[in-house]
Amino acid sequence: MNSNQILKGKKGIIFGALNDASIAWKVAEQCVVEGAQIVLTNAPVSAKIGQTAELAKKLNAPLIYADVTKMEDLEHLVSESVNLLGGKLDFVLHSVGMSLNVRKKRDYTDINYDFMHTTFDISAMSFHRLMQTLFKQDAVNEWGSILALSYIAAQRVFPDYNEMADAKSLLESYARSFGYHYGKSKKVRVNTISQSPTKTTAGSGVGGFDAFYNYADKMSPLGNASASDCAAYCVSLFSDYTRMVTMQNLFHDGGFSYTGISTDLMEQFSDSALGK
Ligand SMILES: NC(=O)c1ccc[n+]([C@@H]2O[C@H](COP(=O)([O-])OP(=O)(O)OC[C@H]3O[C@@H](n4cnc5c(N)ncnc54)[C@H](O)[C@@H]3O)[C@@H](O)[C@H]2O)c1
User: Fold this and answer.
1) Which fold has domain 11-268?
2) Considering 45, 121, 193, 261, which has the largest number of Cβ atoms within 10 A of its Cβ?
3) pLDDT below 70 — which residues of the chain?
């Protein structure tokens, strides 16, 4: 990994590095390579199923477990991070998502609303809860940068993405709404990155993920963006080179979002290919 030290002297918190396939895992590594000091965090239950502790050891970063649905966990995480890092934060990555209806294989037309409530709580409201905690503790420096990861199902229908589409719409809306207040009061910017399908634990949980992945790869002029590509983009948005970017949903998808159809896919739909 090349380093230009564009995060030298900056401090941040990275949520959601479960294993080395996680997008947040690559972001954490790249932030440290670029000179940042970070705190890692993940759900307490991840200690049993994930490798966040290994990453913390490798990067020499403190690890503070926090469940994003619990206010007291976030309050402790933020105050303790400022304490351990020796000053206010410059960046935060929210890389957290989970859908109970997807996990329990409930169809979108047969939703369990207790599950949906939990999905929205973990995948979207947690972003507001996190920003409110940061805001109230005045834990972020001016021109700091807060990011969350989203998916294009917030704008366009991908049937198997199920209730996560609605969770992502809410997540992106929080970035705009809180981004306004955070910008106005404290000159902190808030954005979401809408990432290509990526082979991770959360991604692979979505029904028909291989089809999602292959379709997007064939549609995008540049192909799918990898987790490492996403990490590089996150680093740029944490840096001082993007100070005036806020309240945006930024597509990081190899051109997928603006492509109507690609030549690769057109070939598959010609009359001759369809045997007409
Ligand atoms: N993989 C994809 O195709 C893709 C595409 C676009 C956006 N995203 C988004 O990227 C983000 C990261 O996902 P990923 O693909 O790297 O998968 P991942 O499974 O590696 O990461 C999801 C993380 O959420 C954490 N988490 C779940 N419940 C939590 C809770 N209650 N408290 C704290 N943490 C909790 C998990 O422990 C895990 O670390 C998610 O928001 C996801 O929706 C993923």
Assistant:
1) Rossmann fold (3.40.50)
2) 193
3) none
